[in-house]
Amino acid sequence: MRKMMIVLAALPFAACSDGVTFDLTSTMEAQTRGVAMFNWNDQGVAGMLDQTCSFDIAEGRVLGDLVDLPGTDDRVVDGDGAQALVTSGGDVWSVSDWGETFALSTPGSVLDAAFTRDGVATLTGSADGCAVHFADGSETSVGLAGVDCLSASLESTRSSDFVFVADGSSVVRVDHGTTLEIERGADLMSYDDGASVLVIANSNGSDIRGLDANGVTDWTVTVDGTVDSLDAMGWERFTVVSFTTPGGNSEIVVLNSGNGDVHGQVEVPATVEVTASPDGATVALDDGGAVHFYDVNPRNAVLGAPSVQPQTQPTFGD
Question: So what's the architecture of 2-103+186-310 in CATH?
Answer without folding.
Answer: 6 Propeller (2.120)
